[in-house]
Amino acid sequence: MSISLQHPTTDSCVNEIDKLISAQTETPKWLRDIQRDNTNRFAEQSFPTRKTEHWKYNDLSSLRTKSFLPASQQSIDSQDFDSLLLPLNDAIKCVFINGIYSEALSSTELSSAVKVTRFVNANERQADSINQSLKHAQQDRNLFINLNSAISNDGLLIEIEKNIKVEQPIYLVHLSNSTVSDQIATNQVIIQAGSSSQSQVIEHFVSLKNDKEHKSFLTSQQTLIELTSNSHLAHHRVSVGTQNNQSIARVLCRLAENANLSSFYYSEGGVLDKTDIDIMHQGVNSESNLTGIYLPSEENCVDFHTCIEHQVPHCNSRETFRGIIADSAKATFNGKIHIFRDAQKSDAQLNNKNLLLTNSAEINTKPELEIYADDVVCAHGATIAKIDEKAIYYLKTRGINEMQAKKMLSIGFINELLLEVKNETLKEFLTALVQKSLSNLR
Amino acid sequence: MLSINNLQAKVEDKDILKGLSLEVKPGEIHAIMGPNGSGKSTLGYVLSGREGYEVTGGTATLNGEEILDLDADERAKKGLFLAFQYPVEIPGVSNMEFLKASVDAVRDYQGKEALDTVSFMKLAREKCQAVNLDPNFLKRGVNEGFSGGEKKRNEIMQMMLLEPSLCILDETDSGLDIDALQVVANGVNACRDEKRSFIIVTHYQRLLDFIVPDKVHVLSDGKIIKSGGKELALELEEKGYSWIAKA
After folding, report:
1. Contact flag B73-A390 (C-beta cutoff 8 Å)
2. How close is the nearest chain B Cα to the Cα of A322, in Å?
3. How far is the C-alpha of B178 from the C-alpha of B169, rounded, in Å?
4. Which residues of B, range 25-64, sit inside 8 Å of A by Cβ?
């Protein structure tokens, strides 16, 4: 059974998904209902074109010519696998291969304060809670996310106990291992932080094979993060070595009163690497700090669409994204701040800075403010520049050659943001990675 | 040391240097004075290899070697140093990282071994002390948020670290108070030896009270129109530039 996106809204496509859902015999009924619901939502939308605002800078034409088979879990060599992981030895580790949870590679018993449950094994209470989460996550601008929830007959629920500081990072590894082309991997994760808890999450996207033959491998992923009152979460999401994948993802964070989210993103881009990030301040006095770095090179694309919603008063949000675009790469950043009518005393700031290294590098940046309250502090800005010639000259007069000067200045541009990485192991890893990826500058 | 012969240069189609000649011998200190717009800073930029400053004629050799075709970093490696009038701020790059890269590059060119981090730190702290700069400045971004005086002292510190053979100081004294001026002058005097030469570009005679030049030149309209000993600076201070231009 394969899914063709040629005419996604026609009956034939929906029939294909229906058949697929029916074939997944072990799915509990409540989850199947969610799948059906998303199938309908998917069917209601038309396939995006370059005229669809949300997809304006993405070329999806190649997706339309293909039929996708749902990816299967592959057995992998554990040595190959270990070499790709961050050295987080004490982590609570959840591993997905092609979107499918691998119990064998995961280790979730390290802390009693973190409960990891597959959707298919959820008890009644959990099923209810998953259902609620997915309902709250409904959206209508990205049909691939609907497709994700339509195809996925599983997912992972991570519950963090209340009133506790979890010392071990929660490490989610998303490994893609495409053995045949034209596959679609889907995955959904729900993270619920109990009230007054404190924890750290790292989502790591990595590809086992990164050869060019697998450019038609499509991954679709959704992470829903719920911070209940007074909880603190340091969230990181990095994709590394996935340049030959197409990825369409969404992260939704909902913050209750006094909750505090720090969220860090890192991407080197891919054939397509699009992430929608929604942060919803739903409880008063909640705070979010969103940071992102993108370093696409060659002909890769990266796309971040962020939306920070201040739904209630007295919330605070900070957002900083910086990108260095090399070669003929293309980056898109859309950052929106939406202040609801009753959200007085909101304090929201958004900033996006870009360095273009070549004449063929492309950046499309659009910061947006939508404000319906009248007593707020909001600021937004975006800049696009080349590396400062004066700074290069200054370094050169000190004996530093042009290549090295450019490298130092590029790393300097990114360095400040790396300080926002809360996990030290990840910080070290990314610092080395940034050095490496910027050392091939031309 | 440095031999400039009939140097002509333009910036954006405007001729700035119009046949400048200058001979600096090892160990000498030359002061270059002159009114605004006479080409003083341009001379520093042209000699150090700034892009956009096009040499249209003449030659310049450093230790017998033609330098005008070299890249800016090559000239620095061969011992030419320019202390900037307006040092550039580089956020995100720490002063320490910058200085280490610079010293490494120059030492590598000279065939010397790279300094290990510990010895480099020690050396950098020493030089900081010599120019009265808090060693905490090493951790900050290059010139980021430095005051005018701190930037200038940072320039002198770099000069002391790199031990160049020819130092060009472009209005290093501008905007400094007397204390900072003395620190800068002490730095220069400490570097002074029979091999190292200096070109000191300045508006004011007062720096030359602390750093005594061997020769003083007046630059006007892209040419040296008068040269003399240190007493010429005093005369200029008293009478201004107009009497020379008329003469």
Report:
1. no
2. 13
3. 17
4. 48-51
| Terminal Cα distance for chain B, rounded | 31
In terms of C-beta distances under 8 Å and separation of at least 24 residues, what long-range contacts does A359-362 make, across chains too?
Answer: A360/A327, A360/A328, A361/A325, A361/A326, A361/A327, A361/A328, A361/A329, A361/A330, A362/A325, A362/A328, A362/A329, A362/A330, A362/A331
**ipTM of this complex prediction, to 2 decimal places:** 0.95
What number is the average pLDDT over the span B165-194? 90
pLDDT tens digits for range A18-45: 888 888 888 899 999 999 999 989 888 8
Conformational region of residue B172, where left means phi above 0, alpha means psi within -120 to 50, and beta covers everything else: alpha
Contact A412 B101 (CB under 8 A): no
SS3 B193: coil
Two tokens, residue A176: 């893609």
The Cα of A8 is separated from the nearest Cα of chain B by a number of Å equal to 47
Kindly report the nearest CA distance between residue B101 and chain A, in angstroms. Answer: 7
pLDDT tens digit sequence for B80-113: 999 999 999 998 899 999 999 999 999 999 999 9
Between chains, do B91 and A397 touch, taking CB under 8 Å as contact? no
Angle, alpha carbons A400-A401-A402 (nearest 5°): 125
CB-CB under 8 Å, B92 with A411: yes
Residue A95, strand partner residues: A102, A173
In tens, the pLDDT along B49-70 reads 999 999 999 999 999 999 999 9
Q: Do B81 and A397 touch (CB under 8 A)?
A: yes
CA distance B241 to B32: 13
Task: Check: CB of residue A39 under 8 Å from CB of residue A21.
Answer: yes
Chain B residue at shortest CA distance from A393: B50
> Measured between CB atoms, does B203 come within 8 Å of chain A?
no
Q: Measure in Å the smallest separation between the Cα of B104 and chain A Cα atoms.
A: 9
Chain B residue nearest residue A409, CA to CA: B93
> From the list B93, B97, B106, which residue is nearest A399 (CB)?
B106
Please judge whether A396 and B71 are an interchain contact, meaning their C-beta atoms are less than 8 angstroms apart.
Answer: yes
Residues A108, A164: Cα–Cα separation, whole Å: 17
